[in-house]
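**User:** Everyone, produce a chain:

**Assistant:**
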Amino acid sequence: MDAVVFFEDERWKAFKPLTWTRPACLLRTGIFPLWEKVARLFPGRSVTVHTRSYLTATLKQRYQKEGIQINDWDGLYGRELLLVNGRTLLRPTLASKAEKLEKGVAYLSDDELVALYLDASRSGEALKILRRNQPLTKSDMDALKNLAAKHHTVDENLLLRYPWDIVNANGELITEEFPFAVQGVAVQGKMEPGAVLYGGEETKVYLGKGSVIHPTVVLDVSHGPIYIGDGTTVYPPTRIEGPAYIGRDTWIVGGKIREGSNIGDVCRVGGEVEESIILGYSNKYHDGFLGHALVGEWVNLGALTTNSDLKDTYGPVRVEIEGEGRVDAGTKVGCYIGDHVKTSIGVLIYTGKKIGVYSHVHGVATEDVPSFTIWTKSLGSEGDKVELLLESATEIHERVLARRKMPTTPEDKELVRVLFEETRQERERAEVRIGRPVL
């Protein structure tokens, strides 16, 4: 095929608040984001991501260096296309099957479209649907299926349905993907004298170029490998348990990074983290517990912020999913925190709660927090749920990026404005008032 296209369907809503600011295929679980798990099997092919139109400008800026096209369709006419559902989780164990995809076949899982391999004569019909730059409806998906000469039902359940699916798969995927991420490359970083490798061989640790592990830090690979990216520094006293992934230019500033942890690029992380994913550019600098959680970008968790990932009853946690109501997510379930969220000192987040984009949380979050909301409900204040003004959100956005020496572009500002409007119904349903919080 000539190109790989990751399409977005209407189940993007199930992954809110993380998908307010990205399509699901850009989320990461294991070492690689979802799109890269597929694209790496087809080197040399162009990659295009289909998503909502309001995300186009900002994502184009961000991903152009990685060679990913966002809603860019004109160059795909007359070419063979592999269309892949953006919620597809392709494990390394299935790579050989993916490489044997047949032209003209639609691959289905529980009657949902996973992938469709089209020759050049049929790709134009698919592009008519995709170029609307809106999530595909059921009728859109049926139309794509009808472009195939035949249908094939896959035995494996390849499609993610909920945010906890991403968290639950993470630890095993780090172990499975570690050999492919390392590919026999020698360790390029440095373990200072006094740093300890415990429980296994050096081949279970990868240190990227310019990374430094300080004295007394413990890397425990008893239960899985540890991948640490370029330019990352791990300060004492820190214990990192594999399987674990830490991206580039990140600081681990002490504490326990427990098994199944996944920390993205340019983060500042301390305290205790267990089986959680932090996407990037986020801070958890101080003590506090983060467990079985999925955290977006540009998040700042204040000192002693802690989430619960197990109910007192040891019973199932039910998470509110748009259009479905309360869904059983299992017993070990953390929280789901959207981009640009800020928590103050000592915030507590109950099991399975979602914190919407650009929200500020004070006290205890016993309920889902809508986007662009200043939450003080547990403090007994008069304005317990107050809307964060658009002007304030934009100003804070600029300050936060400036701390990483990154500019706020006009496209970024426009995205904040659009998100403010798109999330208005969240605040209206929660009876968030307009005014000033009283702390």
User: Anything to note?
Assistant: The two ends are 59 Å apart (CA to CA). DSSP finds nine helices and 35 strands in the chain. The longest helix spans residues 163-182. The first strand starts at residue 3 and ends at 7.
